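Help!! Second protein's tokens look totally different from the first
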Amino acid sequence: MAITLESPEGLPPNELYRHVSVATGSKIVLVSGQVSSDAEGTTVDAGDLAAQIERCYRNVATALAGAGATFDDVARLNVYVVDWTPDKMPVFLEGIDRASEMLGAKPVPPLTVVGVSALAAPEYLVEVEATAVLD
């Protein structure tokens, strides 16, 4: 496996993600920001942050599969959330838990959550992009 996820001693514990991703592979897969759209491009789960997060992770998984990768190969995730405030964290975690259950694995690579004022369309509440590394 080309990715090793670590949480070095001296950094705060975090169940949501690992602090460090060590990539030793030679093929980099960059997945563009995925939003809550189905295969036809129709926005789904309007107004439901947890459901949109789940759909975004599912779409990332589909994109990764197209490149021969899985969440086990992900070195980093960036998540953009409209009007982010810390009180949204329980809903954010619910969406990740739902995606993890559906995917059969909990994606825990280094993760950055960025609050933004808007995304490409007003119905999008979240967008997730990924970087994966393969041998």
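Here's the second one for comparison:
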Amino acid sequence: MKVTRVYSDENGESHFEVIEVPLFNRGEIGFLSENVAVKSLQFRKVSPDYDYDFHHAPQRQYIVLLDGGIEIETSLGEVRQFQTGEILLVEDTNGKGHRTKNLERRERTSLFIHLA
């Protein structure tokens, strides 16, 4: 399963990296990853005009886009768009951070899964 990671390097610059989470055949119940230790889960809704200037992730967390897409810009100016259903792993808890904005002018919901 593809996950896009947002992280900071030793100079504080933010970057993207696509990582592959391995899934294992578990028979009738499908393909599952190994368990991931988490500490909490948070639901989120943002306004249609959401455009959050450069910021750090408050903690290491997965973000699952439930409805609506976003655009993320790294500190080096690389821009990528992510759609409903995509998963991000944000780990840039220090450095210059990243910028996030809605792709469409509509309310958007997502799920934050805070890592242990």
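Reply: Different proteins will give different token patterns, so don't panic. Residues 2-115 form a domain with the Jelly Rolls fold (CATH 2.60.120.10).
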